[in-house]
C-alpha cells in the first residue's frame, strides 16, 4: 500500500469512495457532483487529494481537501472528505492517510487542519480523539444552494 | 455606500473587522494571524473578500471567503467571516453584502454557499433564517493545530 498525491486518473476511484461515505452518512442521494465536475475542478485546482493505493493500483482510501483561510489562524487545510474502503477499515490505512495529510499541511505552512464529523459517528470521533483533535460542538452550518 | 471586490489596501480594514467579530464571539485572543499573513495569502489567492465602503473610503463590512469543493455538490463558496461594523448593524449593509456574495458565487458557478454560526448567536441565526438558509446542527468541527 502506498500513499501519494492524487492524479486525474484516480478521480473515478475517489468519487466511488465519496459515494461510499455518503451512504454511510445516510446521504447517498445528496451526491450530485459528477465525474465531469470532479475532473474540471481538479484541473482547476479547486481541490486536491491524497490517495492510498493497493498493489493492484486500486484506490483504497482518500483525503480530499482544499487550501483555505482561517481568519483567526491563517492558512488552513480543510479536509472535506476522509474515507477508507469499507472492507479495509481498522487496517491502519486511515491513520497513514491522516498522518500524510498532516504532513502535507505542514509542508504547505498551514496553521491548522479542520474538518467536520457527524455527532453520531462514534468510530470517527474515537479516531479523532485518539489523534488529539479538538472537537467543537457549538458551531452550526449554514447553507444556501444556488 | 458601495460594495466591491477587496483590494490589498483594504486588508487592514478587513482585519479590524475580523478582530471585532472575534471579540463578539468571545474569542478575541484566538486571532493570531497578522496583517503580513493576510497580505501574503491575499496575494497568493488563498482567500478573497467583498467589502462595503462608505463615502469616506472606510471599510464598514466584509465577506471573506474561499472557493472550495463540496464532495457532494461541487464548487462551493465557503464564507469564512461575515461582519458589519458594530456601529452600523441593522443598517442594511449586511443584507447588501450577503446578496453580493450570493451573486458572486453564482457568477463563479458555485453550487452552494456554506458558513458557520455559533449556536447562541440569535441575531445572526435570525438573519440567515430570513434568507431561507438551511441550518444544520448535527455536524461537529474537528481541528488540529500544527
List keywords for this structure.
homodimer, 146 residues, alpha+beta, Aminopeptidase, five-stranded mixed β-sheet, 4 helices, 7 strands, 34% strand
Task: Please sum up the structure shown.
The first copy, chain A, has helices at 11-24, 35-43, 93-107, 122-130; strands at residues 2-5, 48-53, 59-70, 74-84, 112-118, 134-136, 139-145.
Detailed description of the structure:
- The structure is a homodimer of 146-residue chains.
- The first copy, chain A, has 146 residues and is of the alpha+beta class.
- The first copy, chain A, has a single domain (2-130), classed as Gcn5-related N-acetyltransferase (GNAT) (Aminopeptidase).
- Helices cover 32% and strands 34% of the residues of chain A.
- The first copy, chain A, contains 4 helices and 7 strands.
- Chain A has helices at 11-24, 35-43, 93-107, 122-130; strands at residues 2-5, 48-53, 59-70, 74-84, 112-118, 134-136, 139-145.
- Chain A has a 5-stranded mixed β-sheet, sandwiched between helices.
- Chain A starts with a strand and ends with a strand.
- The model of chain A has no long low-confidence stretch (mean pLDDT 96).
- At the A-B interface, strand 3, strand 4, helix 3, strand 5 and strand 6 of A face strand 3, strand 4, helix 3, strand 5 and strand 6 of B.
- Strand 7 (139-145) of chain A pairs antiparallel with strand 6 of chain B, so a sheet runs across the interface.
